[in-house]
């Protein structure tokens, strides 16, 4: 982590105070004039403030990138047919579990339908991932991937008291936070509160809608990480076990 932050801060300083190619020590780039030194320290402090916000997101992007690449390698080896069969197997087991559980029969049917949607989403995610260009991956593949993973459990929670006790309170808290902090502009939050009630299938609609921005957010973080890695950061692990690069 220390190496990561040191390199990121050095890169930030390079934006305004270009590194002296004859000496790579950061301190030797400090201007000698009083005004230049003040600007140097101000820019350095601003960089630390920016890193305080950006670095946690960067770590999240690294984790997302790590698991996304593992999933990508796994699905690439399976191919389209393999992904479909694997998804059917996983969500088939989940559907079978709901069938033998106390969940009502209509709940079992709903989970099966959600599993079918998840399988289609998984195959489409692989298709758009294989298309050339980062845009199709971020804009389409990531939201479809989020849908493929989270849709069936959310649907099952509509009929399972055990799952509902976990999913619904968390969903309600998340919905309130989004309305109060993100959508509380131009009357959007008030319109949603007046037009919709968060119960029943509305939870499915909520999570299905969230899959799009969540997918975009995660895809953008991975793109940021790839961009920083390609820019020439350190590629070793420090004593603290950092694997940022």
TrEMBL record:
The keyword Transmembrane helix applies. This is Uncharacterized protein. Keywords: Membrane, Transmembrane, Transmembrane helix. The chain crosses the membrane at residues 40-62, 74-97, 103-127, 139-159, 174-192, 204-225.
